[in-house]
Amino acid sequence: MSGAEDRELTALQAALAAEHAAVYGYGVVGGRIGEERRAEARSAHDAHRARRDALARAVRERGGTPAASAAGYALPFEVPDRAAALRLAAELEDRVAGVCSDLVRASSGGVRASAAAALREAAVRAVRWRGGSVAFPGLAERADGPGRPSPTA
């Protein structure tokens, strides 16, 4: 396997792991989000499940063994209510956007196009959950702004 193929497979595995975590996290979001946004959470959950399955196929196509889902995931903060569920949903999307950005950089062709589409979808969902956008979704080192850590912090 060439260096480029190895980088792509590593990035695919990281994206798959992020999708596993997002699927888990949306289970928590759905339980706390409230009836008015539950359908939106369900739609995001379904989108992440579909992306997870596509990434697992892509890993297998490249001769890898897809990373398995963990039994549970540590949440970045407690999620006792609707407000925290909204923050968690935005955080999940930010994390997915980050690994999709890495996959865009590490891949080419159809994988790169799919990763770019996933990055765009995650960024749009994050905006909907957060109520605002960041300058460079998926690029933490460029995402200075309200609620975002500075790269020098």
What CATH architecture label applies? Up-down Bundle
Quaternary class: single chain
Name of the CATH first level: Mainly Alpha
Instruction: Assign a percent range to the helix content.
Output: 55-70%
As for the number of domains, it is 1
CATH topology: Ferritin
Largest sheet, described in full?
none
Key descriptive features of the protein:
Ferritin; 153 residues; mainly alpha; single chain; 4 helices; disordered C terminus
Question: Topology of this protein?
Answer:
Blueprint: H1 3-32, H2 35-61, H3 82-106, H4 109-130
Helix pairs in contact: 1-2, 1-3, 3-4
Structural description of this entry:
The chain has helices at residues 3-32, 35-61, 82-106, 109-130. Residues 142-153 have low confidence and may be disordered. The chain is globular and about 45 Å long. The protein contains four helices and no strands. By secondary structure, it is mainly alpha-helical.
